Amino acid sequence: MSEITLHFAQTLSFSGNPLVTGSESVSHDARGAIAVQNGRVLARGGAEDLRRDYPQAAVQDHGAALLLPGFVDAHVHYPQTAMISSWGKRLIDWLNTYTFPEEMRFDDPAYAAEIAGRYLDLALAHGTTTMCSYCTIHPQSVDAYFSAAAARGMRVLGGKTCMDRNAPDGLRDTAQSAYDDSKALLVRWHGQGRASYVITPRFSPTSTPDQLSALGALWAEHPDCLMQTHLSEQTDEIAWVRGLYPQARDYLDTYEAHGLLGANGVYGHAIHLEPRERDRLREVEAALVHCPTSNTFIGSGLFDMAGLVAQGQRVGLATDTGGGSSFSMLRTMAAAYEVAQLRGTALHPSALLWLATEGSAQALGIADRVGTLAPGSEADFITLDLASTAAIAQRSARADDIWDAVFPTIMMGDDRAISGTWICGVLQ
Ligand code: GUN
Ligand code: ZN
User: Fold this and answer.
1) Cα–Cα distance for residue pair 331/355, rounded to 1 Å
2) For a Cys-Cys bond, which of 22, 121, 221, 255 suits 260, CB 3.0-4.6 Å?
3) Residues 84, 325: contact at Cβ < 8 Å?
4) The whole model's pTM is what?
5) What's the CA gap between 411 and 407, in Å, rounded?
6) Which of 73, 76, 77 to mutate to test the pocket of ligand 1 (most atoms within 8 A of CB)?
7) Residue that finishes a domain, picked among 323, 346, 363
């Protein structure tokens, strides 16, 4: 039998979605543990119980740190790493001024490889072990991403961003080449090691109806793949979509009419939804991804977390690097808290932690593998130092329960709070 390692720390275990069932569905163990063997979680329980059950196991004691599943970032653009936090624009101008010129550089495979590696190292330092990324229109940007993730042993999802209009020369494909290139990349990468291919039309304004149809056809051929795109992020964008697709009932209908609505669809932002759109998304059990630092940074609007969850929608959480202003899922949880406050709801720390781990994993259909520490899951986990700065330490010192102890780290923490990141049981 191969070696077993016990990790002792504070642990949480979720028996449901705390957004729905409240923090009572979470149990806290101040002296908990996981047992890891062959890159997977073998068991979870009390530290002394696991020590008794596995007397030969090596022990790593993380003291008062909180051991969590690695964060799952459900919507990022790794090619935007080097231009994150670019000043002064709203969505359409931001894309044209900053994003498209940067994405054009990914024509160069060496540049794509450099940024893919840089992005994944930043993500790991921030405790993010899995993400779902847009690449650029260049197939080599997809190869760079999956190769860099494989070199680090990470479970990642992503795909070639498709655009055949309203983008500059050098950053457009065609309906046919988007289909052909996406298909070739899907065949090359989907299910290779820990990689999953995601069919990725950027959003309706940068695709012709023909391109959306071609990608809808590809999805119908590979229904087990996810399809990701953007939906109803800014009001100017929605007005533009209305002009480009005069036949469509609403923004979601531009996807639905071309075979791009389904349970494996992952829709980023989803802020300004019409009642029909909400009903259809719910009916098909699509996933919505909340990107709160992006929504405040680009000035998009306030996602209706409470209303959407009450309606039974599946919701994940994401940085939206580099429209989002941080690589950190802690900063992202803080922004989600603030956005919800502006809409009159205080999200409990258990709900924020769930969204950043199991919730995002559920939105991406991978919660049987990552986003939890249930026995059998892949041993991607982090330890969170609940006193990582003087400001946080003086506040958490007077906490009288785990939620009061972790909330200052959610609101004020960053990569300094991540004291360790493990991929398949190996410290990075
Ligand atoms: N909508 C279409 N493309 C993008 C993008 O790159 N970032 C964000 N935030 N929204 C988009
Ligand atoms: Zn995005």
Assistant:
1) 13
2) 255
3) yes
4) 0.98
5) 6
6) 77
7) 363
